[in-house]
Amino acid sequence: MPRMTFVERDGTKREVDAPLGLSVLEIAHKHGVDIEGACEGSLACSTCHVIVDPSWFGKLASPTEDEEDMLDLAFDLQETSRLGCQLIMTEALDGLVVKLPSGTRNAGG
Questions:
Q1: What is the pLDDT of residue 46?
Q2: Could you write out the DSSP letters of every residue in 20-73?
Q3: φ, ψ (nearest 5 deg) of residue 41
Q4: Which percentage of the chain shows pLDDT scores above 70?
Q5: What keywords would UniProt list here (predicted)?
Q6: What SS3 state is found at 86?
Q7: Taking the model in full, what pTM does it have?
Q8: Phi/psi at 78 (nearest 5 deg)?
């Protein structure tokens, strides 16, 4: 099974099982990682915002316009920011590393 690493707000790294076909948001919830996901993955908020490790960012599919619109509302937006609900685990993403932002802003959702 693929694995991925969440870097918590305090810098703690948590490597977890990342079942194929689940989103980063779903994987976080499965393992008790503190990502809100207020809209439950319906692209109506930015509370599942994660910062993708730069070494992985280029391996991801480009965000949709809807995802980019929601990211514009995210707190602590970075060059490699994505919404966790839009990142679906594949074999190619085995080892993915994402960092939780310093906070969230719930606009919508």
A1: 94
A2: TT-BHHHHHHHTT-----TTTTSSS-STTEEEE-HHHHTTSPPPPHHHHHHHTT
A3: 80, 20
A4: 94
A5: 2Fe-2S, Iron, Iron-sulfur, Metal-binding
A6: helix
A7: 0.92
A8: -125, 170
